Amino acid sequence: MVVSTPIRDRAGNIVRVVNASKDITELHELEEQIRNLKEIIEGYRMQFVQLQESQSDTDRALIYRSKKMEDIMALLGRVAVVDSTILITGESGVGKEILANHVHRLSPRADYPLIKINCAAIPESLLESELFGYEKGAFTGAQKNGKAGLFELADKGTLFLDEIGDMPLSVQAKLLRVLQEREITRIGGYNPIPVDVRIIAATNKDLQTMVAKGTFRSDLYYRLNVIPVYIPPLRERREDIVPLVNKFLSHFAQKIHRNNVSLSKKAMSLLEQYDWPGNVRELRNLIERLVVTVEDDIIDADDLPAHISKGVPRPADSPDRNEPIVVREVLPLKQAQQIMETQLLQLAARDTSTLGEIAQKLMVNQSTITRKFQKYGLQFGK
């Protein structure tokens, strides 16, 4: 590139021309690299969308027979076509993420990304940068060119905020602003960036109780709770157990090339009677284990885990059917207390990252939890 500057005398006549030459080969190369990068990014985006569309049948298929799930699916079918925020609640393992996938596939945003983030799995110090991104030099260790946040990546698509109840209060305030203003500001940046994103949030916690305790912002709760969807646990919709078992059997048998695997009537009956504290996730994992480990084509009751195969069936009109704790034999009170407390601690420690969260779940002081772990010889995080 040549820039010419005329030099004139006092009479205004051009007496010479100064030419400044600059090699712009490198500039053209950089422009070409930018174009290539944009094409690569678009290619990855399309691959991402295609990958979502090609998920396995067990992740995409919605298997149910109960009236409760029929009503839920009818509701999701109606709200999927609009942009209203959805808050999905229910116990761990009931299939909240699968329903979020279903809503996205039915929505007008289906051709754009469905971005997911587990708010409980990312440290508080990183969660904000993951959601909103950051500019170059925003903090020590930041990428030199900055980074786009998940809101930007989900533009025109859907952002699934799993375990929203574990989001720190400091991040809750910034999320609320994004939901209200429909724009984000990267960490270390000043210019707002408009985003067009549909929000689906999910949690296994009681957000109303958390609001009352001050651990979850009330204004954010009401902003998220536009379309509330509660997914009942598997023990409250036992009609779904048999079709789910058959679907998982077929899927995992095909996966390892076993064509004639089935369950005996007794085994199926025991699975129907079990309460499934881990819900559909626990059922899916059990069926996979049985298909892989049992050599016979017919999986019998003896092949089931002891806590299922030796369980005592309860009549339908039993008054303790929906009780969280069931005692089936007389034993010393101290022993019963130890068993109960040990199981409660182990159950509360699932998907929990700190002793403080366990204490919050069990509504006691953290010092009490520490003392109980030491008393019963339990190791947290192992």
From TrEMBL:
Superkingdom assignment: Bacteria
Name this polypeptide is given: Regulatory protein AtoC
